[in-house]
Design the sequence.
C-alpha cells in the first residue's frame, strides 16, 4: 500500500518464506506505514488536526556493506520520527513550527545548519499534478519562515518533496539530519480522511518529520562536532575530584558525594598515582572540571578548580559556589567550559 515494495525493496531486509520460496516478509525500514494505518483505523474530525504521531521503534535498512561507517551509517537504528496529519490550509503553520523547533534544538547544541529544498526524484509515485501541488505548498511554507535555503532538484523522497537540514561537522563534512517531507500520496494510497466543518469527507495531507534523524548518526556527529570535549551539561563525567595526597582522601570523597547528591556527574580519582598523572588523564578524558583538594582546600571546604584545556590555571572556590556555578551552566545549557575568570 505504501509503495515501498516497489520503490524501496532493495533497502529492506527480506525474510525468505522457505515453503513458497518467495520473499514474503521484511523487517520494518520506517515508521510511516504503521502511522498511516493507525490514523486510518479511526474516524477523524477536522477539530483533531493537526494530529501528530511519533514512534521511535528500531528500524532496519539493508545498506550495502561498503556504505556502512561507524555510527553514521548503520543497518539498525532509531529515529525521532513523527507524522503529522493535517488539512491543506494548515501546512504553512505546521512547517513554520517545525522549522522553529529544529532551529531551537540545533541552536542549543551550537550546530550550524543549511536548509535544502528537494524536489521530485526520477523514481517516484503519484501524478505530476499531485507533485505540483506538494512542491508548491512546501515551498510556500518554507518561504513563509524567512529561512534561507538551497535547491536540490530531483532529491525528494519517492512520495513527496522535502526540506532537509544539513549540518557540517568539525572537519567540514556535511550530514543530513532533520527533514520535513510533504506527502500527498500516502493519504490517497491508504485512503485517509477526516470529516470537515462542512460534514463532508476530506483528504488530509501528511508531513513526515525528524529533528535528530537517526539517533546513532546524531550522536556520532555530536561527538565529532565537539571533538569529544562536551559542554558540561552533556559530558559523561562533569567533575573529576582529585585529592593531592592520602591526607585529603576523606575530604575529597565527601565532596564527590556532595556533587553526586547535587545531581552532578562527579568521579573521585584517589588512585595511587601522581597528581600530574591524574590531572593529565582527566584532561585526556576531556572532563570539563577538575577539583583538586589539597591541605588548604580540605580545611576550608573549598576546591582548586581547573578547567579543561586551560592548563595550570586554577581558581579556588568554596564548594557551594562551585556547585552553584555548575548548576547554572547546566541549567542554561552553556556551551563553553570555565567561568570566565581565574588566576
Ligand atoms: Zn515517514
Sequence:
Amino acid at each position: 500500500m505504501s509503495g515501498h515494495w516497489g520503490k524501496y525493496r532493495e533497502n529492506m531486509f527480506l525474510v525468505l518464506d522457505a515453503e513458497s520460496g518467495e520473499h514474503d516478509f521484511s523487517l520494518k525500514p520506517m515508521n510511516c506505514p504503521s502511522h498511516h494505518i493507525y490514523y486510518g483505523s479511526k474516524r477523524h474530525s477536522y477539530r483533531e488536526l493537526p494530529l501528530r504521531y511519533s514512534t521511535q521503534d528500531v528500524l532496519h535498512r539493508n545498506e550495502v556493506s561498503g556504505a556502512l561507517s561507524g555510527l553514521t551509517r548503520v543497518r539498525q537504528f532509531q529515529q525521532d520520527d513523527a507524522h503529522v496529519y493535517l488539512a491543506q490550509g494548515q501546512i504553512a503553520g505546521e512547517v513554520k513550527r517545525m522549522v522553529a523547533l529544529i532551529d531551537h534544538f540545533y541552536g542549543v547544541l551550537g550546530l550550524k545548519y543549511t536548509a535544502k529544498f528537494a524536489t521530485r526524484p526520477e523514481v517516484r509515485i503519484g501524478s505530476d499534478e499531485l507533485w505540483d501541488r506538494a512542491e508548491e505548498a512546501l515551498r510556500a511554507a518554507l518561504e513563509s519562515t524567512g529561512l534561507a535555503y538551497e535547491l536540490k532538484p530531483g532529491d525528494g523522497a519517492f512520495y513527496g518533496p522535502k526540506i532537509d537540514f544539513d549540518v557540517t561537522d568539525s572537519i567540514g563534512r556535511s550530514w543530513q539530519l532533520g527533514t520535513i517531507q510533504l506527502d500527498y500520496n500516502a493519504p490517497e494510497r491508504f485512503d485517509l480522511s477526516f470529516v470537515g466543518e462542512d460534514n463532508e469527507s476530506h483528504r488530509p495531507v501528511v508531513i513526515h518529520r525528524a529533528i535528530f534523524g537517526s539517533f546513532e548518526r546524531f550522536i556520532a556527529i555530536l561527538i565529532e562536532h565537539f571533538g569529544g570535549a562536551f559542554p558540561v551539561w552533556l559530558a559523561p563525567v562533569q567533575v573529576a575530584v582529585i585529592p593531592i595526597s592520602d591526607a585529603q582522601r576523606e575530604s575529597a570523597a565527601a565532596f564527590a558525594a556532595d556533587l553526586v547528591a547535587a545531581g552532578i556527574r562527579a568521579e573521585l580519582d584517589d588512585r595511587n598515582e601522581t597528581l600530574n598523572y591524574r590531572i593529565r588523564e582527566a584532561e585526556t578524558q576531556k572532563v570539563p572540571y577538575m577539583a583538586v583538594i589539597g591541605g588548604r582546600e580540605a580545611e576550608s571546604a573549598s576546591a582548586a578548580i581547573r578547567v579543561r584545556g586551560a592548563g595550570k590555571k586554577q581558581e579556588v572556590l568554596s564548594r557551594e559556589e562551585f556547585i552553584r556555578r555548575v548548576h547554572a551552566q547546566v541549567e542554561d545549557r552553556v556551551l563553553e567550559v570555565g567561568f570566565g575568570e581565574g588566576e
Notes: The chain has two domains: 29-226, 239-331.
